[in-house]
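Journal club prep — side note

Before the paper discussion, L.F. wants everyone to see what a predicted structure for a comparable chain looks like in token form. Sequence:
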Amino acid sequence: MHQVRAPGRRARDGRLWVIALWVIAITLALVAIKAALD
């Protein structure tokens, strides 16, 4: 599972994955806050 091919693309995908995780986490947090306020 350790690929050494195309490190640049791998790094870019990694950054996109981190951003996607942040978006999901923030969305879940907002939903939880809204549910708590309601």
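L.F.'s comment for the group: DSSP finds one helix and no strands in the chain. Keep this in mind when we get to the figures.
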